[in-house]
Protein 1
Amino acid sequence: MIAAGGTVAVPTETVYGLAARADSAAAVAAIYRAKGRPDFNPLIVHVPDVAAAEALAVFDARALALAAAFWPGPLTMVLPRRAQVPLAAAVSAGLPTVALRVPAHPVMRALLAASGLPLAAPSANRSGGVSPTSAAHVAASLGVRADLIMDGGTTQQGLESTIVALREGGGWQILRPGPIPEADLVAVLGEAATQERRGIEAPGQLASHYAPGKPVRLGAESAEAGEFLIGFGPVPGAVSLSEAGDLAEAAARLYACLHLAAAAPEPRIAVAPIPPRGIGVAINDRLGRAAV
């Protein structure tokens, strides 16, 4: 299916991705068409190893250090795209950069190995909606818009990868918080991230994103009339991100709970407070965009 230019929903350690060969403009267009995705929103290109990534982008010492520390894994790097590389222009959405990741999930790694191709793979759901952490979520969101769905069970991390842009002159910036927190990146790069603001450079930067299709109220200590409450820690709810208050468990369950809330009869959703530390920063980022 990949070789023929089709789209395949495949699990990664973060969420399910809708993969297609990144060297084909027609295949990449099929991703945008299936998702209803804005064409100014770049795609992440997945490759099997650092050597394959270096063939597509310019790596400096910082990029090599990050790759050594976090690849394979849930880190995406936005790097200068090499000239004349066999990538469809649409994966970069007209930018001189490319977003690259070496995933860790055995199913995605097997698909990369079998195809021998770089694979563009945004989350396998309709654009702007709640990301999928199971094959059932993919089927409910995309249905026949995906040519094939590979069921690899529930994803482990449950949040999309951390995206880091390495700037000229030594600066760097987190474009999307994720499973790898800023402190871990600072430990490798040795300096704090910049707060520079540019346009859309990577997935997950749109103000409204991960939306369940209902109004969402954050920081709720209890449910109001007509609300489906997603609990956390001491705040009970119709479902709980983590009754033990474990942020890693909350991240893994976030999208599954939002899917349940979207399907519930209540017209509105409330979410208990989430501490803004560690991966809680990424959880609050997704919730804030879901609530817009």
Note: The mean pLDDT is 92.
Protein 2
Amino acid sequence: MPKRAGAWIACVGLAGAGIACGLNALTHGGFFEDAIFANINPFAWFKLGQQAQYLLLTAAGVILTATVGAWHASRRTAPLYLYAGLATGVWLLTAPKIGSDLNYQVEMMLALAICAGCALDHLEFFPSLFTARRTWVTLLQMPLLLHVALNVLLTARVVAERVILEPFKAQETAILKPFVDRPGRVLSVQYDSLVQERGRLEVEPLIYSLLVRSGLTDPTPVLHDLETRQFATVILADNVFEPAKTPEDLEHGTLAAAQLAAVRNNYKLVRRADGPNDVYIYEPKRD
């Protein structure tokens, strides 16, 4: 079995590497540049801390149950635990990335949930619980009930926050609509209005700024367009005419310092749109 598994992994790995190299050759290096290098965002320990806090809050019961079951794992369930371990390793390598979100936990959580379910079945949790056997296995109901209760409460909180914030988002979209739904190019940190009114983004400021910082993207074209006032509208989360009030935040969608200076020199602030996140609307100056 281990030899067969090793051979299967080797074959899949070689096939995947071959396909990736072929795509990269066909795109003249563009595949690796877009799929790999563009996703190597800067790492920050605070991101891993945020991810770990949420994971422990929402998944502690599942993790405990899966861990208990690992001590009694059989040859049938060992591959599931191996998969969960590999998924956890991928999460540990990617969760600290700037820009990472909770979707990075999905694969690991699904694997841990399957392991926990197999553990409950192997330990005969439900037969022991329903027949009132005197065994430590029935104690697992406490972390499982806590897991259900916490996740129901968190879901209710997310829904409530969405209901409260939705009118403010709608108001912000209404304010931005006349500035977005008109001829000319638009550079905006507010994606919803662009996608809704235009169906596309020209520059995605968060990823763009990370690529500029890492030297993977040349900032000159956007800088030139700002200096020559090619954008009919610029929508930023910064008031470029005021000093920065907080330290630089790598997860804050913005532009490079030279590009912000170009906005300051060539554009005027025409409106501030209040919403869940304040945005500032700029139009080209008229000489």
Note: The first strand starts at residue 185 and ends at 188.
Protein 3
Amino acid sequence: MINLTYLSDGKVMHGSLDEIGKIKSEVWIKCISPSKAELKEISEKTGIAYEDMARAIDENERPGIYDFEEYSVLTFHAPFLNKNKNYVTVPVTIIIKNNVILLLSTRALESLQNIELLDDRKKIDVLEHDVTFTIYIILSEIVNHFFRISDELDDAVDRIEETVFRKHTERTVKAIFSLKKTLIYFHKSLTGNREVITGIEKQFLKEIKGRNLKKFRYLYNDVIQLIDMVATYRDILTGSLDIYLTSVSNDLNEIVRKLTVMAAFVMVPTLISGIYGMNFQYMPEIHNWGIYGYPFALGMMVLSIIITYIFFKRRGWI
């Protein structure tokens, strides 16, 4: 779907690609999950190569900047909540040609929707500035979305920490690995985004220039902070996993110790009953003790249990 937004006589207008040649102000073209036909139409109306746009919507496209003769291309990664309710990152490509800013993405991203939901007053304020300011606003909203998700991840890490100390379940391990997977995606994407902002600051893109270029230093600092936060969360989860494995090992040792104590209680009485259960003709306790042989054997069993209990009690095993 293609959405075209521009400014005319101080008002925010929406139009079609057929009007693009007549528009003198800055133009936003947002295209989400474009079809081949839509890309070809955009190419015909704007002069942007179809191949460059097709590459831009590849979900494996890494963050980067490319400066062509007639336009500049910028790819930035943004967070996206997939159907499994896990956060991943997907590329957002911005192509700048003169007064035209083309946004391409294969997903309906919250950050882009937030820009679309700006009231007319704020849109007018953005459109009245130069292209550099508009790019800054778009990238800033993506970075802010990362920050909002980082708050959710912080809460998730806290819940995992509490769970690790309270109970040990397979669900806890799955939650740790799922969260670590998300953090790996974020770290990889944020590192690439950092390089994109560095390239913009160094003016590697001819379409992005002017006094608003200084604003990208704020974005750079924010991305560095996000990278540090992601690394911190990963370290905490690694520590939580180590604690989980240690707790499971300790619990197993405790179970083995209890089984050992139980086996010791049974072992000596079993030995005594085994001895007196042998079928030999001459056994002193049977021939000489008469009726006292059976109580004697039972007493030996009880005494062995008491001695075993005292032994393990002093060792602190029970």
Note: DSSP finds nine helices and seven strands in the chain.
